[in-house]
Amino acid sequence: MKPSVSILVLLLWGYVQGELLTNGGFETLDPWSCYNFNCVLVNDKHSGQHAMKVSHRTVNYQGPSQIITVEQGKTYQASGYIKLLIDQADHMSQRVAMELELRYQDGTKYYQEVAAHPPIKVADGWVQLRGQFAIPTKQIERARVYYQGPIPSVSFLVDDASVTELKLNHDDHTWRNITDQVIRTHRMSNIRINVTTAATISNEDVQIQVIQKKKSFPFGSAVSAVAYNDPSQVKYRDFIGKHFNWAVPENALKWKHIEPRQGHKDYQQALDTVHGLKKQGLKVRGHNLVWSKEPRIQSFVQAMSGDALRQEIKNHIEETMNKTRGLLQHWDVNNEMLHGTWYQDRLHDPDYNLELFRIAHHADPRVKLFLNDYQVVADGALTEPYLAQARHFKSANVGLYGIGVQCHFHDELEPNPYLIKQRLDLLAQAGLPIWVTELDVGAEDENKRADFYEKALKSFYGHPAVEGILFWGFWDQKDWRGEKAALVRGPNLELTAAGRRVLDLFENQWMTDETHVLSHSGHRINVLGFHGDYEVHVRYQGHERKDLVQTFTLSPGQHTHTVSISVN
Ligand SMILES: *[C@@H]1O[C@H](CO)[C@@H](O)[C@H](O)[C@H]1NC(C)=O
Ligand SMILES: *[C@@H]1O[C@H](CO)[C@@H](O)[C@H](O)[C@H]1NC(C)=O
Ligand SMILES: *[C@@H]1O[C@H](CO)[C@@H](O)[C@H](O)[C@H]1NC(C)=O
Fold first, then answer.
1. What SS3 string covers 72-105?
2. Tens-place pLDDT, residues 26-79
3. Of the bound ligands, which one is closest to the alpha carbon of residue 171?
4. Domain housing 27
5. What is the pLDDT of residues 454-477, one digit of tens each?
6. Number of folded domains in the chain?
7. Least-confidence region, from 5-19, 162-176, 375-389
8. Between 172-186 and 417-428, two packed helices, what is the crossing angle to 10 degrees?
9. Substitution site in 12, 169, 171, 177 for ligand 1 pocket (most atoms within 8 Å of beta carbon)
10. Residues 60 and 160 in one domain
11. Could you say which of 168, 203, 226 is where a domain stops?
12. 332 C-alpha vs ligand 3 centroid, how far in Å?
């Protein structure tokens, strides 16, 4: 990213003040703590006289740390430089980050990466970690910032660390106004109804109802294939069919689930789910062809290398895309590439991720291909590297369609509309559609959860680059985060306060239903309507004129749709 862009973002959304770290330049060892490992000053520095060399670690999370003072509800930005001193044969690149540890007064702890970088290697030299973060609204006893290192055998240098408060606009008014305007201009179009009446018809006897039957905006959830295919889970399937127009199998399409052991393939559970969802009228995303993170890769794949591995992967992608041909709208190609590099490392091919997209695009050019990652919008540790990755894939012309932002918000962290907008604006600079692919918040209190979801959903729906929103589960019985993220709970899928709030937005506030009486509105009725499928009903003297019912679709991008009605 060009520096001018971040300066512009800051000018629009806030300004930076006072440094919270002491000796972020590592000119002395104080007050950095290096408990149980080695820290020394060295001359190989990023700036100033010295940097700090970190070695003799025994666990990944060891790195220099210091206590800082932060306040609940406030926002901050962090940055720092890091340079690796050793590469490992089996792990060509290493994950590094700056981490925040909060100890709350209730004794619990909270960890959040506040600035990170996709995996790096020695040849990358000094790299900058940069991100912004918000502090949850809980009583804090102590906050500590530290470098989260690579594997213990890799020593590294650190320099020029900084944490400053980010003075964001905190008023509740401005963002609502901005998102409302975006919703009006991007999610709605004009409906013009031109009514002509016979001379015998009196205007007060004619009522016109413009009612939206379906929304076109993609709104959905991850679906558990096990529950979905269980004949006793009628309520689960019904809820999905009634409230969502998109879905994504949570696990069933993952390679590990299709082929846990080499040659033992089972596509049935995945295909049953996809066929069932399509029969219910939903569109379906594919998640995911491969997954970059080592723990997510089956042992038989991890045992392979070279051309045999390449062939195995190519065959898996082609076969899976063959089996699902015509059924899926999207595919996440290689999940979480900002976090894992297993395939590149094993094949010694830094460009292999591009090759994966080429294989998938060639196998089925009609399916839209996505990046899918986290720490990019719900938190901002990797937003800038994600923009760089999206630009790289776009310019490589390998069939990338869109940017998937997962959006798993930390427990008890209230989504901040200003931070969300800042991050979405940044990613939108890639000029690609953005999909919220895995939304959830974590709040034990269901009313708080309702507020959190409303803030997140308005921020997304009210951003012009966002093309669709999917939750990552919605039922406490089948949600990876359990009750604290759930929209519905219990065997009867009873709505929680959060579920009521979410459905009120998508099924009431963001749907159109207006009735006009000709004596009030005249013969030219204008309605600003949400995009979707409509019916127009005419009532004369209180009775529906079934012969005059009209249907139409109001599409995104359409300026005005005109309906002509002749009442005689
Ligand atoms: C919303 O923004 C518009 C345009 O900037 C402004 O005219 C209006 O006063 C704002 N309304 C509120 C309630 O802030
Ligand atoms: C309204 O409908 C009448 C009769 O169908 C037609 O003559 C007239 O041009 C229409 N006006 C507009 C503005 O569409
Ligand atoms: C996928 O389908 C294509 C076209 O029908 C076929 O040529 C290819 O062999 C199939 N690949 C796999 C791995 O099933």
1. CCCEEEEEEEEEECCCCCCCCCEEEEEEEEEEEC
2. 999 999 999 999 999 999 999 999 999 999 999 999 999 999 999 998 999 999
3. 1
4. 5-168
5. 999 999 999 999 999 999 999 999
6. 3
7. 5-19
8. 40
9. 177
10. yes
11. 168
12. 20
Same domain for 361 and 402?
A: yes
Residues with CB under 6 A from ligand 2: 194, 196, 562, 564
Tell me whether residue 515 is in a domain.
yes
185, two tokens = 């201009």
412-441: buried (b, 16+ CB within 10 Å) or exposed (e) per residue?
A: bbbbbbbbbbbbbbbbbebebbbbbbbbbb
Q: Both 256 and 348 in a single domain? A: yes
| Helices 383-395/417-428 angle, 10° precision | 20
- 546: tokens are 């079934």
- Looking up tokens 């540790």 gives 381
Structure tokens at 526: 């204008």
Two tokens, residue 371? 């990046």
Residue nearest atom 8 of ligand 1, based on CA coordinates: 177
Question: In the prediction, which pLDDT does 7 show?
Answer: 45
Residue count of the chain, please give it.
568
CA distances in angstroms from 21 to 32, 80, 104, listed in the order given? 10, 11, 20
CA distance 163 to 192: 54
Note the pTM of the prediction, 2 decimals: 0.93
- Write the Ramachandran bin of 443: left for phi over 0, alpha for psi from -120 to 50, otherwise beta: beta
**Which one of the listed residues 113, 384, 412, 438 is annotated catalytic?**
438
Q: What is the CA radius of gyration of the chain?
A: 27
DSSP 8-class letter at 546: G
